[in-house]
Design a protein that fits this description.
By secondary structure, this protein is of the alpha/beta class. The protein contains 13 helices and 13 strands. It starts with a strand and ends in a 5-residue tail after the last helix.
Length: about 300
């Protein structure tokens, strides 16, 4: 199980109601699959790590086969794979609720969480990057030292889920976890709540105060990379042609991780991230991964920025 990268996070099957009235059923979702696609656009050496129920492959099986994704990182520890109703508002905001009851996520949190034990088979001395979707209070943050002992050069990208980043009671925990990882990602709305600021410039100042690289997602307005008290920003990839933006944040954050581990400059990091999100937005659900054609989509899409 030798992989350069690991995409670890939740898997969800979504029923979706879009702001324009469209609906969709049994759409593959969750952070893991979109993060996998963000890294998989640039390298085949990425593991998919997530939890599901006995029904997992009845939903995900075809996509895994069509895109040559290994099943070895799927832990069937849940009674059911998470299934939610995801509803979008006209302002781009969204909310979702479990179709198995409002307390299903909470009841199954221990079975669902990533851990060093689950990660260990995929970690080695050459592992380059880990995309981590984890709530603020998860045990895995006490296991970061173990991860780094196994993979000394690993770079960890943390994307806190919205319910964590917007919870004022978790603020101190969030700040502590940011210190433990190498790079983190928030969207502008999450950052506004987290830093208790509404002005974008003030939000940027507060991020700079953390002295930790941050990939700041801003939807159709693009993204920014903030590090070393400097900021680089790049517009989104042709947002008017987007079909579905579900998962674009996870996808772009994971792509930013890939580029960051390669030592690229801030604008190249943003190019990789925005191209990955732009490619995903052209599809309903997860985008196809063209094995053997890694980077070709990037070279094609980056022409938009020339």
């Amino acid at each position: 199980m030798n992989y350069d990268y690991i995409a670890a996070g939740i898997s969800i099957v979504n029923d979706i109601r879009y702001a324009d009235g469209r609906t969709a059923s049994n759409r593959l979702g969750g952070c893991a699959i979109f993060a996998y696609g963000g890294i998989g656009l640039y390298t085949a050496s990425v593991a998919f790590l997530s939890s599901g129920g006995p029904d997992f492959f009845s939903f995900y099986g075809d996509y895994f086969k069509e895109n040559n994704i290994s099943e070895e990182g799927i832990y069937l520890t849940l009674p059911h794979t998470h299934k939610t109703l995801l509803e979008y508002e006209k302002d781009g905001s969204w909310h979702e609720a479990s179709l198995y009851g409002e307390d299903y996520f909470a009841k199954q949190s221990e079975n669902n969480r990533s851990s060093f034990e689950k990660l260990k088979p995929f970690l080695n001395e050459n592992t380059k990057g880990l995309y981590l979707d984890a709530a603020a209070d998860e045990k895995i943050f006490s296991e970061i030292t173990d991860i780094r002992k196994t993979s000394p050069d690993i770079i960890i990208m943390w994307e806190p889920p919205t319910f964590s980043s917007k919870d004022p009671s978790k603020r101190d925990i969030l700040l502590n976890n940011i210190d433990l990882v190498d790079i983190y990602s928030l969207n502008l709305d999450e950052a506004s709540v987290f830093f208790n600021e509404t002005n974008r410039d003030k939000i940027i100042e507060r991020i700079m105060e953390q002295d930790k690289p941050c990939f700041l997602r801003q939807g159709e307005n693009g993204s920014s990379f903030i590090a070393n008290k400097k900021i680089a920003s790049l517009k989104a990839y042709d947002p008017d042609k987007a079909v579905d933006v579900t998962g674009c944040g996870n996808c772009s954050a994971a792509a930013a991780l890939y580029a960051f581990t390669q030592g690229y400059d801030p604008y190249e990091i943003l190019l990789h991230a925005n191209v990955a999100a732009g490619y995903l937005s052209r599809f309903n659900g997860p985008a196809p991964i063209k094995r053997g054609r890694e980077n070709k989509v990037y070279l094609q899409f980056r022409k938009y920025y020339n």
